[in-house]
Amino acid sequence: MITIEKIARLREQMKRLNLAAFIIPSSDPHLSEYVAPHWKSREWLSGFTGSAGTLVITSHKAGLWTDSRYYIQAEKQIQGSGIELHKEGLPATPTIPEYLIRELQPNEIAGIDGSLFSVNAVRSMQTALSKYGIKLHTKHDPLKEIWKDRPGAPTNKAYIYPTKYAGKSCSEKLILIREELRRNEVDALLTSALDEICWTLNLRGSDVKHTPVFICNLIITQQSAHLFIDPAKRSKEVDDYLIESQIHIHDYDSIHNFLNTLQADNLQFDPSKTNYNLYSHLPSSCQTNEKESPIALLKAVRNTEEIKGIHHAMIKDGIALVKFLHWLEQAVPTGKETEVSIDQKLYEYRASQELFIDRSFDTIAGYKENAAIVHYSATQESDTLLQSKGFLLLDSGAQYFDGTTDITRTIALGELTDEEKRDYTLVLKGHIALSLAKFPSGTRGAQLDVLARMPLWQNNMNFLHGTGHGVGHFLSVHEGPQSIRMNENPVVLLPGMILSNEPGVYKKDSHGIRTENLMLVVEDAEGLFGTYLKFETLTLCPICTQGIIKELLTREELIWLNQYHQTVYSTLSPYLDEKEVLWLKDKTHEI
């Protein structure tokens, strides 16, 4: 079926269920950013393949809401489908409740699958819609009847993640979590966030593409811990490990009954990360403490072994990237390489490194105007031949057993326009400004975000995605709770946190530019009113100098760039062959 036919079938089911609207998000029951194919309902129905977006179907209209990363991509992919694009983040764009209030009549019903929406999201919609007499029903999944070839829920095996890479054992982590629960006077904790569970238990899986997690739920009390997992995912080795770690094992589907009978006076859960159907099974006698899981912050602050591991992973990633960039410079003039072919070549270089497991996300290899699509993914139809001119934007990463990487380089393949050079230099200035930041303890990411944007703002440009996100340790490439972005986030930056630094500029039908390194928050010095922190750049890869307008860089910015390149050269050159060393020396020479 094409999208128009799928929507028509959905409307038939909606009519049968007496629904005037149905809302389809991009999430799974664990509210993950990236989901297994079984839960890609929005993608299957709309044809839009971006990771973020919500589809709303009424009896006569259809709308897709997505953020600035996907404006251009979504516009192309839903063309001719009858779906209207609503660009989130713009003042003129209505929220989904505002849209439903406009389209529906009092006493009409909007439906959702409550297992795919957070408690906060459902409450917000209920509050907004009820003022206008519109009802929200949370136990519908009409796609069951029309998605006949729907992939099954994943059943891949979970496996043990050794303590020598994790830095702390499962038992040690449970002690830390229970200490936090006691501090908050809480008896039990419910978490369904897959990265939190995998981190706590020192287990990993392969249920989600490029993200080493598995589908499960976890309840921790002061006396016990309970893992809810599909029996097909378990092995004798994992069972023995869990029993030794004093983790009780339950079938995945039994969590609702378990919650109904849970004996706890006070249970903590995160209403932004817990699906509404789980919440609806909490016993009425149990008082709830609704706040972020303590695991999120414990996980975000790297221990000594994790920091050692990410340094090792960065060296391996740097070696692979230098070998690839050296190859790319020779390959492009042959006229045979495309966005897809270079992605495969980069994968091969990374795969040859010790402890490599997988990519950490689908590579973004965007040439010229394709790079203006922030989360572009080359397809057979869009795959573009690289030429010896313009910019190639390459955003990629890897999952190594000892760390997760994420890096973006914008590479000049030949002649550039003055506009491309200017935009490239302004993005680099913002990247360097954030890299050089020193700040007092207690600083939040939102307070530093302006540093990366100011060179662009001063030239009437901006980017609408975040400047920096946390990165997991052999876990999710996008991790909270820390971030650097314009909107407020109350989480302060702490020593041991890892964040990306990735300002950019995107001009439709012209070019896209982004420069990204990962940074570690470290202590700098004692000063007036306390301790001051700074960033240590972790990523090791040359930054293309061909697009730089030197006169636009300050002396301090040039010093940072030259010192960074000196570090890249001295760290990576011992692992390269003679030709690669000469190439790297040229690409890191002082400017």
From TrEMBL:
GO cellular component terms given for this protein: cytoplasm
Organism this protein belongs to: Bacteroides graminisolvens DSM 19988 = JCM 15093
Residues of the Creatinase N-terminal domain: 7-131
Top-level taxonomic group: Bacteria
One term of GO molecular function: metal ion binding
UniProt-recorded name of the protein: Xaa-Pro aminopeptidase
Highest classification ranks of the organism: Bacteria, Pseudomonadati, Bacteroidota, Bacteroidia, Bacteroidales
Chain ranges of the Peptidase M24 C-terminal domain: 532-591
Protein family according to the UniProt entry: Belongs to the peptidase M24B family.
Peptidase M24 domain sequence ranges: 310-523
Annotated signal sequence range: none
Family matches, as InterPro entries: Creatin/AminoP/Spt16_N, Creatinase/aminopeptidase-like, Creatinase_N, Pept_M24, Pept_M24B, Peptidase_M24_C, X-Pro_aminopeptidase_P
Keyword terms, alphabetized: Aminopeptidase, Hydrolase, Metal-binding, Protease
